[in-house]
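Exercise 7. Given the encoded structure of a 58-residue chain, write a plausible sequence.
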């Protein structure tokens, strides 16, 4: 399924584009594989994507 997360646009738009893309990927996985609600998935995904980005930066 193609998730757009339009209702979370304000929260996602403040992110670095790489972090935003990763957060959406993670949120999709959390919804499809873990059964998270969209709201919980996007909140957790943003945190995970930020951690991923900081790990890349060293």
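Solution.
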């Amino acid at each position: 399924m193609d998730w757009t997360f339009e209702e979370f646009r304000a929260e996602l738009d403040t992110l670095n584009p790489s972090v935003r893309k990763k957060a959406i990927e993670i949120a999709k996985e959390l919804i499809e594989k873990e059964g998270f609600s969209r709201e919980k998935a996007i909140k957790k995904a943003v945190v995970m994507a930020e951690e991923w980005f900081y790990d890349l930066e060293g």
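Remark. The chain has a mean pLDDT of 90. Students should compare their own answers with the one above.
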